[in-house]
Amino acid sequence: MEHLSQEDRERLALTGLEVGMQNRCGSFFQIDQRVVQTTCGAEGIEMLPIKVALEKYDWMEDYYWNAVPRDADKYTQYVAKQETPQGLVVIAHPGAKVAMPLQACLFLREEPVQHVHNIFIAREDSEIHIISGCASSWQKERGAHIGVTEIYVGKDAKVTSTMIHNWNPGISVFPRSATIVEEGGIFLSNYVCMQPVKQVTMYPTARLIGKNAVARFSSIVVATPGSLLDLGSRTILAAEYTSTELITRAITTGGVAISRGHILGEKENTRGHIECKGLILKDGTIHAIPEIEGTLTGTELSHEAAVGKIARHEIEYLMARGLSEEEATATIIRGFLDVKISGLPAVLQRQIDAAIDEAESGF
Amino acid sequence: MTECRMLDISDLHVSVDGTEVLRDINLRIGQGETHVLMGPNGSGKSTLLKAIMGFGGYRITAGSITFKGDDITHIPIHERAHLGIGMMFQHPPTISGLKLGKLLVATSHMSEDAIEALAQLVNMEKFLARDINVGFSGGEIKRSEVLQLMVQRPDFVMLDEPESGVDLENMSLMGKEIAGLLEKDVHIINRRRSGLIITHTGYILDYLEADQGHVMIGGQIRCHGNPREILRVIKEKGYGECLRCKQI
Question: How far, in Å, CA of A48 to CA of A52, rounded?
Fold first, then answer.
């Protein structure tokens, strides 16, 4: 950490990196292609560089390029052809539960492309919360980050994956993620991107293969001028009594935010809902593309999407209580972005709130 | 008591979307006075309240509004609020993500405990953690509005149909607190706060005395007088009588 400048430390702090690890029980830190820290003090939990994990456990092969196919697209192919895979493996052994988050920090500083392959495995009845902070150095003008993440949520296990991005206007980002959730498993995915970036394209998929599995995706994003955020999330309800929610709050201050969503209900007694709300603060684009696809009578799917500006009568209502127009506007935006995520540890919610507060001062 | 002016509206004309809705409005409300405004639907009563509050879309084309001696005809809404004007909305917006309690803290200098104590008076303590007006019933919306005014403590309170959609039990609860907002418990000599209340039914008068009544028809105030007497005539003969008779 001592190699980082003060500016970069501050950028990383915004993505949730706790340098002093006060509220973390494990930490992984990769700068460009170099793993600089892997430490974990939680019982029953292992954090390993992927190379080490593949050597240590034969069964890792079952999880390596399983949820995400190697040849899904040119980005996965790029990561697959690397001789030395880099990235993080988290293994929560059966029954291991930690409320304190593990942090994974991926920092792009000098190289043109950073590639990462992460695998999170929560075995039966385990519980882990992972906060992935991705950022680029304040002086990094151009570059790309390609990150493959495979997540396996075992029977009755729970995984919370919170990703906070803090890039620069010249950085392109291509996360490629997929999750498999077994019976009774819970997967919560949270994504926050409030700072300028050249482009982010991603469409993470959760496949619920066991009864009563649940997936919930929440995204809170701001498209600043010049940013293209092409974001989606997909859940396949592939077992009975599975359910999902895909929630997005998107703001444009001049950039383009595309919010895709797809739920496929293919088994009896399944439920899914997509909710996308967009706020156009300055001329830009918010394009909501919700898709719900049911293949039998026993699935109930719905979506709601709304795009618009802040209603004048809401601003005036708050002004009648004494807030200035600027204060009223900021208060409404703050409320708009306030997606309380059930099951999220308070420390992670505070991190999301902090990212929102930081961006809000720029509106 | 009336020597001290709270509100003074002179020859006011207001247009909405290019159409004149209010004409030649003259209204004077003294310190400590409560006035009621009656009139058929669409006569311009709510427009007058919104013009006094300063909402966009209510364009003042002539005349002036003076509040406690200051000309407020063209100042922004929040400055009017700071000067001491408060309004209970008939149809307030829902604002998702904004907690009622958070707004009350943001718009006052009161502690959360003090706000909770006030909320208990109108059975709203459980709503402080809820998004403003989201999923509130008619009565809950009114109680939320009253609570916001209790926190704001305006010198001049405007109430737009406080009775509508409220059951008797809630009406009694609210009536008491509204009377408190208007310092009805304070001796008339020392009473400082004033009010302007739009009412169709007059039920609010069961909880507080009003000093003057006005009838608005077709964007004009057609008569002034004793509020109960005006209400009685309207109940017996309808607003048609007010059209025939310019002076009750």
Answer: 6
